[in-house]
Design a protein that fits this description.
With 414 residues, this protein is of the alpha+beta class. Helices cover 50% and strands 13% of the residues. The chain has a six-stranded mixed β-sheet with strand order 2-4-5-6-1-8, sandwiched between helices. A three-stranded antiparallel β-sheet has the order 9-10-11. The chain has a two-stranded antiparallel sheet with strand order 3-7. Helix 1 runs parallel beside helix 15. The protein is globular. The termini are far apart.
């Protein structure tokens, strides 16, 4: 499976991220990033960002709307805020953003290049070219409004950008990765698929090479006589030339329009594995090992999903909705964000990452074992259905400091 680029179709929804969630997303997103870099290196983190399913799961585990376009803006914003103070140590820099911020990307890249010794002007050109390909060479009915460029100190990069189709109330996200990229105009995406939006013009497809050359030729000679001759030649053609073989498919994520989390959105076998692993390891074991006061059973469930975001293979993220079970959603779907659980998750991750920097791997390895346990148990464990799981979270919501954009949760009348 190519990892050069991918795409995601998402309902156009998200809204402003409240401060109480945005601050926590910044902290948790930074800690997850550092854990991935610690275990697997910067290049692997860039590969993760280039994978549409992982990116959506990353946003879901941080409490964003699990299925919506708002994940793109909020995740990039959280990483930009959180990684900036850590840029010297991690060697990762996040540029761009939405609207006016996207237009500042080239100058941000030039500035970073001057600081760390990269070809900032070359990176700025790359930023402009990637944006041009997805806005001009690829005409699919989506107008770009967000451009995020993440670059490492060694010059490797990933681009995440998003377009909007206002009439359809949908957004499409495009992922690019420098690794393995040989040409910006010869199938850099490997594949762009999605819901039918009418005719798509993709001059960045390798099968459009003849068309690109012809257009350049016409522009060079630019005269009405030549254009007429070319048009006549096309009309006289008896049959189209055979197309090259189909291009390799990238993972393409199409999210549903419904807002609630349904059992059809979740791989229940994996979810039951997550929950069983958390119960099997036991909160007492984790509290003793991680030395974080107050870590309870509910937090260990959240940590099982955070651990999978850190350690899981790409095939594990085909159901991003499952990761919303960790910390809920700001819009109350699947349930209000349990802030006490969220804060304990951050505390555990912070402790593990800080000690990992000092070479003390016990806590990071404990989280890794939790993920391993999930995959072993999911082969045979069973559990309650999704409606029962979500209903239980709603009942306990007030006890865990449940909060959404609609306010704090009131204690149950029961």
């Amino acid at each position: 499976m190519s990892q050069r680029a991918g795409s995601a179709d998402l309902p156009l929804h998200g809204g402003r991220v409240p401060h109480w969630l945005g601050d926590r997303m910044t902290r948790l997103g930074t800690l997850i990033t550092e854990a991935i870099v610690h275990h697997y290196g910067r290049d692997e983190f860039l590969r993760r960002l280039a994978h549409p399913f992982w990116f959506q799961s990353f946003g879901s585990v941080m409490g964003m709307d699990w299925h919506s376009s708002g994940i793109t803006t909020s995740v990039l914003g959280a990483l930009k805020r959180g990684l900036k103070p850590r840029a010297g140590e991690l060697g990762l820099h996040v540029c761009g953003g939405r609207g006016a911020h996207s237009r500042k990307t080239p100058q941000e890249l030039v500035s970073i290049g001057e600081r760390v010794g990269l070809d900032g002007e070359g990176l700025a050109t790359t930023s402009r070219l990637v944006a041009k390909v997805d806005s001009a060479a690829l005409q699919d009915g989506f107008d770009l409004y967000l451009h995020g460029f993440i670059v490492a100190d060694d010059g490797h990069w990933v681009v995440v950008q998003q377009g909007m189709n206002g009439d359809k109330r949908q957004a499409r996200r495009y992922h690019w990765l420098s690794e393995g990229l040989e040409s910006f105009v010869d199938s850099p995406h490997a594949a762009i698929e999605g819901r039918s939006q009418g005719e798509i013009v993709n001059l960045a497809d390798r099968r459009a090479e003849h068309s690109r050359r012809g257009q350049l030729d016409l522009l060079a000679t630019l005269g009405p006589d030549r254009i007429i001759r070319e048009a006549a030649a096309l009309l006289r053609a008896e049959a189209p030339a055979p197309e090259p073989a189909e291009q390799p498919m990238l993972p393409h994520l199409i999210m549903p329009a419904h807002h609630d989390v349904r059992e059809s959105d979740v791989n229940m076998r994996r979810l039951h594995g997550n929950l069983a692993a958390a119960a099997d390891r036991g909160p007492a074991d984790f509290a003793e090992l991680l030395l974080v006061p107050g870590v309870g059973a509910r937090t260990v469930k959240a940590l099982a999903m955070v651990a999978e975001v850190v350690h899981g293979a790409p095939c594990r993220f085909s159901d991003p909705a499952r990761f919303s079970i960790a910390h809920g959603g700001k819009d109350r779907h699947p349930f209000p964000v349990p802030l006490k659980v969220y804060d304990e998750t951050i505390a555990v991750m912070k402790s593990a990452v800080q000690k990992g920097r000092l070479g003390r791997e016990e806590e990071l390895q404990a989280l890794r074992r939790l993920d391993d346990q999930s995959r072993q148990l999911e082969r045979y464990v069973t559990g309650p259905d999704l409606k029962e799981i979500i209903a239980g979270e709603f009942r306990q919501s007030a006890d865990f400091g449940g909060r959404s954009v609609f306010g704090w949760e009131e204690p149950s009348a029961e």
